[in-house]
Amino acid sequence: MNQNFPPNQPFPPQGGYQQGPPPGYQGPPPGYQQGPPPQGYGQQPGYGQAPGNYQPAQQSAPHVAPQGSPYPVLVSTMNDLPGYTADKVFGEVFGLTVRSRDFGSNFTASFRSLGGGEVPEYTQMLAESRHVAVMRMCQMAQQMGANAILAMRFDCNEIAQTMSEVAAYGTAVIVHKVEPPRPQDSKPDEDDANDS
What we know:
InterPro entries: UPF0145_dom_sf, UPF0145_YbjQ-like. The protein has 3 helices and 4 strands.
């Protein structure tokens, strides 16, 4: 490798390369502020924080999450929800977390894996990761104004053999409960009346 150029540049400069802005560059446009990108898709306030630190959007959708559910919206792996009808579909929502175990836990877990069976250190980490991913997905759905997520799925990947990525995704919708049809009062048939 050629060491005649700074190591942070992927390729050596070509002939005629000049450091700095190109000739005639007048600087950023008026009002430009350097910093993090503006809030947009996937960049909700609090995203990446611990679950529970979110602010739900003002929503007109009825609350349908079951009492005692750990999630603020109804979450289902089904494509259709029996007893409910979808009034509005917002589209895909997701939650993502990437975790790594500390050296001590990895060391302990590697010895446990030699004997076979469950490795509690990794089981706990993945269970927590799934919960955090679902909570972030729910946060995104609430900010859209949804009250339910259908067709929820998990996706897990390994990153650099030291970290695990867990993503939860589904379709954000507004649903409302449908009352089952009431049975009609049964009237005796005329044939039954004539038989007596």
